[in-house]
Amino acid sequence: MDFNQTENQILITQTIRDFAEKHIKPYMMEWDETQHFPVETLRALGELGLMGIVIPEEYGGSGFGYFEYITALTELGKVDGSLTLSVAAHNSLCTNHIFKFGNEAQRRKWIPKLASGEWIGSWGLTEPNTGSDAGRMQCVARQDGDDWIINGTKNFITHGISSNVTVVIARTGELLDSRGMTAFVVERGTQGFSGGKKENKLGMRCSETAEMIFDNCRIPKENVLGNVGDGFVQALKILDGGRISIAALSLGIATGAYEAAVQYSKEREQFGKSISTFQAIAFKLAEMHTKIEAAKLLTYQAADMYMRGENINKESAYAKYYASEVAVYASTEAVQIFGGYGYIKDFPVEKHYRDSKLCTIGEGTSEVQKLVISRAILK
Asked: Does the annotation mark 310 as catalytic?
């Protein structure tokens, strides 16, 4: 791997920093307090090419690789993890699923609107009683002539209410059959498809998390992605790439917390000198920085292998597991360095602290990542 930033990465970094100063920082705490989902801001990011960053230009995307994608998520994550979560879910789950497994007609129909940010996407796998145990899903689809009828509920879905289109995995075969689930595309406005309860969360509060409800939702057979029965296998492959997204998001939160702590430690004086000169603080910063660098290496390793078409099941789990835990660690240490000021909302580390925990839970808990890794090394 070449660790030098490309011109594209440098340009993306500066573009996001400029955008964040004008369009994110002035509003993000208000969004956080009110749980406002800033759809208009996501659409503006779409105009910058960030809502279809790895999608080829022929489908309206930016045509970049995963290094540029990691750069974008990391830079956004330094500022607002919750908005970054929405960008990641839109790109790596919904849009990427249609791109990877859709036929040409499906790609042409949905991806240009998603890649431009005109449409917001969601992805439905998790259910109220089936989180990591997705094989027991109760959301079912049955064929009725040339249509499919979906019934059931998905929860903890990013953009579950506001998305214009969703990719939903429903059971079309026997319970626990890994070949008994199918992926469908459902557009908002389809009869029988609605949003449900919006969750009131600890962190990531401007990223909408809600139920999706399917009540005799009828869709044409043209909305099946890939082959009937391949939905769960597809989902596992999508989650491999999704773990890179969460690792990059985690990297951004950790780096944002670290940079804020470094700046504060230089400015804050106690006993006649800046607290950065105290070994207790300096060692905290050293450990934070080292862990962040290690997380970065694991994340870029997974991305490099992904772009070369290699199996990244284990490597994406490494990256997601370690980077998410580092995000929690770094943001916790940043709050400690800020002291009392770290516990109030006037300073950024309080929000990093709350946002970071989701990274160890979403798209596979840390425990699930350990399960993936242990199975890979013990087989």
From this structure: no
